[in-house]
Structure formats: C-alpha cells, structure tokens
Write a structure and sequence with these properties.
By secondary structure, the protein is mainly alpha-helical. It contains 16 helices and 5 strands. The chain binds a DNA duplex through helix 4 and helix 7.
Length: 343
Amino acid sequence: MDVKPGRVSDIIRNSSEEDEDAMMMDLRRGPWTVEEDVALMNYIANHGEGRWNSLARCAGLKRTGKSCRLRWLNYLRPDVRRGNITLEEQLLILELHSRWGNRWSKIAQHLPGRTDNEIKNYWRTRVQKHAKQLKCDVNSKQFKDTMRYLWMPRLVERIQAAASAATAPTGASSSITTAAANTYHFNNNNNSFQAPAGAAHVALQQATLIGNNNDLAGSYTTPENSSTAASSDSFGTQVSPVSELTDYYSNMSVNNNKPSSQALDYFQATNPHHQVGYHDSMTSPSGYSFNQGGLNSHSFQAASAPEQNNNGQWGMDGGDFSDNLWNVEESDMWFLQQQLGNI
DNA sequence: AATCGCCACAACCGCAAATAG
DNA sequence: GCTATTTGCGGTTGTGGCGAT
C-alpha cells in the first residue's frame, strides 16, 4: 500500500489519555513520511532501540513512542521480510494457528522476518476469506478439518511442485534491479541512512534496507524475489521439530521430487508409527472423509479447474513463477469447494 | 472517464504484563 | 510493596489501489 506524506488532518485530536498528551505536544499520526523514517532509522542506528517515548523525543519525531516502536518493528527493521507469504510460510501459519490460535506474536517467532501484524493480516484477509467462501466459520470444526485434510496437503503438493520447477530457469532476476533502485543505504562513515534520491514515498513501500553496521547488517530479500526464494530461505532452523502434522505428512512419497525447503522437511519428518500418508483416503476426527482422488495430482490436473492451462499445468503459462504460486490460491478455493461438495 | 465496491495492509487503540523508580 | 511508565499483544479501523461496471 502506498503511503502519502502526512496531512494536517493527521494531527491528533481525540480523547484517549495518550491522545490528549499527543495533542498537547502537537504529535502527528497516520502514515509516516520518508523524513520521519530516516530520522527514526538514523537515531536507532546510532543509539539503539528501546525506551521508545524518550527515543521519539530525542530523535525529534512528533510521534508517540508507541508509534515509533510499531513503525520500527513492523516496517523499518532491516530484517523484516516483505512480499508475498510463501507456500511454506502459509503452511506454517496454518499449522501453528491450529496449535496456538490467535497468538500472532508467538506464530511470528517461527517465521523469521515476518511480523505478527503481517501474519494477522494474512489470516484475516486470506484464511478468513476462504472460510467465508466455504460458508463456514473460521473457527468451526469443519473449516479446521478442511484446512488440515485438504488445504495443507494441497500446499505440500504445491511446495513439492515448486521445488521441482525451481530447478528450471526463471525470469525473476529483473526484479533485483527494481529493488535496488528503491533501496535505503546505510552510510558507515556517518552512521546514517540515506533515502534514495528523489524517493517518492511509494518507493519506500518496496524498499529493502541494506546496512553494514553491527545492528543493521545484511541485505534482504525483495518483495519480488521473496516468493521464489522460498525453497531455500531461512526457514526451519527456528522451527520446533515437533509437529502434529508429521502424523499426516509422514511417509509421503518424495522420490520424484526433491524439495530443498527446510520447511517442507519439517512436515515430512519420518514417523515410524504411522504408515498412512496424505495420499491415502482420510477420515477426519469429525467424520468428514476425503478421498484420495482429490488429493492426487494426476486426477487434480485432469479436472477442468478455472486456472488450468492447455498443458494441464497450474498457472505455468509463461509468467513469473512466484506470481503463479501466489495466484494459484484461487485454484485452491475451487479445489476445496469441489471436495466439500463431495462430502 | 467516472464511480463504486472490495481488498490488502499500515497504523491505531485499548488493555494487560513487565519494568523502573 | 506501591505507583508510574513502558512495552507487548490482539483487535480494529482508515485509506489507497485496483478491478468491475
């Protein structure tokens, strides 16, 4: 979403305690400007984060400490990962939410670089939308079973397919150029961030941060390449090895595909106690049964779903592969609706 | 070309827990 | 131990973008 510079109307004027303080001090709220972002980044680069109220004052920002903290954590922090939620991340979110419910910050701890806000937004916009389209409550047993027995196995399939396809050349490299043009640079000489020359605020929305001091080190994935990087990025190492999903995804046949994703490995851990993989017919605890035909990639491809191309492939019509991974979510909806129709 | 409605996401709000003084 | 302040979290809202009409 593009963010326009603040307006006069953004000056606070209502009545909570913090707002009254804010009004007394003529504090701003609403979208952040490039100048504010740079001021905040520079201050944190030199003094570190914490003590947000005093930080806001000392940095010369007419913002509440709360607002500064949120801006930093959810947006400016160098390690914040932007761009589409990858398939692996979707899978993790579904799994972790089924375990912990709306504990967004806890879930976010297992998705490096993702913020609780981003995950919460994903859940509300995507997952709840699916529940709505399936005409069931997002917290209902039926929807949870649908996620567990249909959607998640389907995601695993797609991750595997993506891993195979990733070995083929893609045309994703051009995105790097775009990102580079919208990049904030950290100047090591004077410990300051510099906005790109003539930066419109819209550029900030897609900018990556490149820092090279102790606190702000490294370069970060771009919105465009974050999806294609899914199979080899920083998943897994912080993820608990214990998953209920392993019960369902154990012994999955991966002989023909060799996914490199650690996240997928996470869901494929061998469990000697269970011989039934997701390709087999399953009956959910609440009594819904899901036949293997719907979960079999061959029969699935043979069906006349809306986004199937002439080659019987999913979304691989010559466009950017990461886009297709994302857009294919609609075919998931079609697929889930077909399956539920058979129940 | 203009308008409308929906969607996604950044930012805000209120509350509770943690920490400082 | 008490109070004030700060931090963290989950829920909600406001707004720009974009497709449909």
